[in-house]
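Subject: for your reference before the review

Hello V.,

The reviewers asked for a structural picture of the protein, and I figured it would be easier to keep everything in one thread rather than splitting it across files. Below is the amino acid sequence we used in the manuscript, unchanged from the supplementary table.
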Amino acid sequence: MALPNLRKYEDQARFGLMASAAAVVPLLCGAVFSFGKYNHDLRAISYGELGNFKPALLACVGLAGLLSVIGLVLGFNSAGQRRNKNSGQSWTGFFLGVGVLSLAIVLFAAFRALGFEIKAA
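And here is what came back from the structure prediction:
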């Protein structure tokens, strides 16, 4: 399979939509990780110091943010171009990227505010 030619607006639209759609997967994984560790009694996301929870969650949020920014930029760049026949894909990739990036920022802020590391004594 050949790499997409990102000089063409149609390819930018398609690749931007695919990047934004791919960003949903790590975002959902990070959300499942955090809500699985949420302790309602403490009102905190509690995790142990020896586990891999924190790096895994930060990797999920970072990957979702990176893919959504790629989709957002490519969708915005190709939207409204006269030679772009896939303008709908451009706008869909742009708005999906904005939504995923917003949710990734909210998930990161929730982890920073509610994260509670349990240290062994």
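For the response letter, the relevant points are probably these. The CA atoms of residues 7 and 49 lie 47 Å apart. The chain has a mean pLDDT of 89.

Happy to draft the paragraph if you're swamped.

O.
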